[in-house]
Structure formats: C-alpha cells, structure tokens
Amino acid sequence: MSALTGTDDWEHLWGVPNTSAVVITADGTTTQTRGDADREYGLASVTKLLTAYAVLVALEEEALALTDPAGPPGSTVEHLLAHTAGYGFESGSPAVTRPGSKRVYSNQGIEVLARHLAEVTGIDFGTYLSEAVLAPLGMTATTLPGSPAAGGRSTADDLARFAAELLDPKLIDRATLDEATRVHFPGLPGILPGLGRFDPLDWGLGFERNFARPGHWAGTRISPNAFGHFGAGGTFLWVDPDRGLACVCLSDLAFGDWSKQAWPALTDDLIRAHG
C-alpha cells in the first residue's frame, strides 16, 4: 500500500478540494503517485526553489557571484538567497535590520534578487528561468505569471522532474548544489511564517535547512540533512539526500492548522515505509 494513501482522507477530514502527490527515488523514478499529477496548482513559496536554482545556474555561468553587492547597503547575493539581507517579509518592504544579523524570511529579498539577475544578464527573469531550468528539465507545464518569490504555477509531474534534478543534479555541478544546501549564516534565529520561531532557523541558498526540528512541517523522521520548501498555498517539496528520496505534494487549500497535522504525518509515514 502506498504511503500516499493518507492524502485520500484530506478532503473528508479538512476540506482539501484537491491534492496531487508524488514520491521520487534517487534514480529519478516516480515510485508513488496520488491524485492528478497533471493538475496545475499555484506553488506559492515553493516557487523560491525554482528561482534559487536559476540563480545557481547563473553562478556557474559567472553572470554573478555570491559576494556581489545586491539589495540594501551591505547586502550581497548570498544574503538575499539566505534571507539575511535585512528586508521584511512582504513584497516592497524596506530593510528592517542589518544584513547578516538576523534571519528574516523575505519575499522582497527574492524579488530583489530576481531583478538583480535580470539587470546583470540583460534577460528578463522569467525568460532566464525558462531557458536555464524549466526547458532543460522538460517542465513544460510550469510558468511564472507572478512573483519569483511566490507566483509560480506547476504540476506534481513537472515538480517531480525538478525533484529528480535535486537528487542527482545534471544542470549544475554537485558541488554547487552542495554549497546551496549547506547552512549559510549559521546560528541565526528567525520566524518561519505559519509555524513560529526557531533558534536557529537554518537556511541555505534558497533552500530551507530546518528539517527534523520539533514542530517542523515535515515531521521528525526526516533527516536533518533534508532540504526543500513549503508554500502558504498548501504546497511542499522536500528532498532527503540521506535516503535518496523526495516528495512533492500540491493542494489547493491554504496552509493552516490542517497542514500542521497532515504534512508531518504524511512525511513520517513515507520515511517509515522507505526505511
């Protein structure tokens, strides 16, 4: 029996209209599927993973560098990716703290970074994302009609392709992905929207690294080395490199109390089933 069968009860228990979920193994195979894998969903902040990956491609192409100034005074590309540039959460928010001093999760920082990449390359960010990431991975159902921080749209099938790339990178060197998924500016406390304060709140270059902490949205069985992201629209993607396993789960009910119950249980069941 698939560990994803638990999602079948989400509509009855919590009123989740639609859920699409897939499990991907280290060889890129989708081993489990639930729901319509071709149904399109708003990704919310899972969009940040795609945006970060486009920036990693740009880093390898030497279009920019982590140490390049970007954002408020004293901030760099690295600060923006790691949510330490000092911006507040909302789009258009001003800097609220000194770069590198706190982990302030920020849509604004990611949007500033996308604009910076467009400026240094002379290529619209949406076009760069498509040419650098989406087209090479065959993600034909994925679009960016809105913010590069939270405005992407995709399907579980398309994101399974992206998850396979995160398990075994082809578009960038493994060393680049390893650098992106290590904790940057370690030891900083912060608030994860919808879940509360963590100390520290670990983050890489666009990738959350706070997994296996008590109260985490992905439960407690997942490896501390896991990385990924969740979206307030009811979406998540995680990769557990220690187990060679990834999961994509998309729904159309906003993150809330239901997610705090359903997502940890689902992930714990998946990890338990895969040993």
From TrEMBL:
Q: Which domain of life is it from?
A: Bacteria
- Residue limits of the Beta-lactamase-related domain? 21-258
Give a single Pfam family match. Answer: Beta-lactamase
List the InterPro entries hit by this protein, alphabetically: Beta-lactam-related, Beta-lactam/transpept-like, Diverse_Enzym_Activities
Q: What is this protein called?
A: CubicO group peptidase (Beta-lactamase class C family)
Source species, please?
Kineosporia succinea
